[in-house]
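Review form for a predicted model. The reviewer records the input and the model, then writes brief findings.
Reviewer: anonymous (R2)
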Amino acid sequence: MTRSHLFALALTVALPLSIEPASSQTVVEATVTVSEAERQVLVALAASNATLEATRRQSDRALRRKLFEIEDLQARIEELMVGDTAAAQQIETLRNQLAEQQQRFIDELAAQDEAYSQEIASYRRAVEDIASTPEGLAALQRFNAGEEAEALQVLDRLRAARDLAAARRIAQLALDAWRRAKVTTVSVIARYEEITQIDPSVHWDWVELRRLYFAAGNLSDALAAARESERTAKTDRDRSVALNELGDVLVAQGDLPSALQSYRRGLEIRERLADADPGNAGWHRDLSVSLNKVGDVLVAQGDLPSALQSYRRGLEIRERLADADPGNAGWQRDLSVSLNKVGDVLVAQGDLPSALQSYRRGLEIRERLADADPGNAGWQRDVSVSLERVGDVLVAQGNLPSALQSYRRGLEIAERLADADPGNAGWQRDVSVSLNKVGDVLVAQGDLPSALQSYRRGLEIRERLADADPGNAGWQRDVSVSLNKVGDVQVAQGDRPSALQSYRRGLEIAERLAEADPGNAGWQRDVWVSLWRIRRFPNSGIGWADVVERMEEMDRRGVLIPTDRVYLEQARQGQQAEAH
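Model under review:
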């Protein structure tokens, strides 16, 4: 049962049976009569669902077992509701038991992690506010019956008639729907822009808006939102979060020195918090996150020894946390992430045997978590990610059959997750990534027809995601990457006209993204990479001079990635040869 389905069931259980979801063509005008006890049950049921995604991703086995018990109880209620009407008293008893169990579930999860506690409290306030009117109850029923966009329109109308302060509650619901790919990026941005204009003092509103702008590829506004999140931070931890948010944007803009400075400022705060309270596992975990952020920038700057040192410091912290609490699945998962980070640097240093050892240690942890909790989609996905990393090393070692086997195991997991939850855009994208990995090995093995088939399947998925949410720059960029892969195979097959067509389509997307956000170093890089591919075609009208011009212009603006300078020199040499 997916999160959205469980949330829908919770609301259906809590609402009177006489209420039917309104047609998507009509405006909710229903009057719902419920007792205060029934309303409290609705709030408890709905609020608990804010924890489900986090629970599946990171909580321990004990909480997962309780979640399964809750789902079983909900299923029993559902069976009674579609059966004998004489079971009304039994339904009422079970509903009260369900509300009590879910509230205990919320309390236990909140006690484990302060960040989850804040999320749960925020979501509960949103549900309580919306559920305070009959119209709000009816709109919530539509929202959780799969009519998110229509329900949000109704809630907007109700809010306008009441109080603009309710905008935040509705924006939080919209953010939840966006994470499940039910509404567009642009629509949620508009909501958070409105609430930050009404009340610009809330740190976490700016954090969410920063992340939304980032998803849309709007780095200039993301940078401004990150700075506002720092300005409005009330606690040291909030300030460290804001500094990480700022660093993420600066990395994307190619300003690695400033990003490193921002991450290190956040790291200093977290070191002070951890030193002041050595027994606080959360502070130490935060410290490991900051060490990884610093390591990421050092990798991008080419300082691999320092990056490895930073990652290993984070790994040591996570090993201590995992050893101190072996039953905490979150700490175990964090340990696997650090092992992957260390492996990434070892690959870059050319130490493939050590990298493979690090990746396989991480894979073993993830397989244990997934085996212990087969219903946790997050754990299953983690296994597929580790299988891809193992496959990457095997490819680098020339062991293509084993690499293909590893990639295909990851693809099988990704396809199962996507089939189980077709509305989850993240799962769909994971399938496209795995298809590309499989295609890469097939190319290396010389099986071009099968490789092209794999790439095209991935392209179809990415085009659907991009069409469904045109404002999501990441989805658009994914399409251009897949088009380039298709073009590469078409070149190898000798179908140069089709290849040129694929490359030009990819270039058009890259140029649109780059034009929309000139400060995004990644988008700018995609343009010259596409030009590099196309200049191989004599009649394309693009030569080395075009590549050099683009890269030099990026260099002048400070958005050329330092490690790409070697390619700029190659392009200049090609331009000189072309001139003669």
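Findings: Residues 3-183 form one domain.
Further findings: The mean pLDDT is 82.
Recommendation: see findings above.
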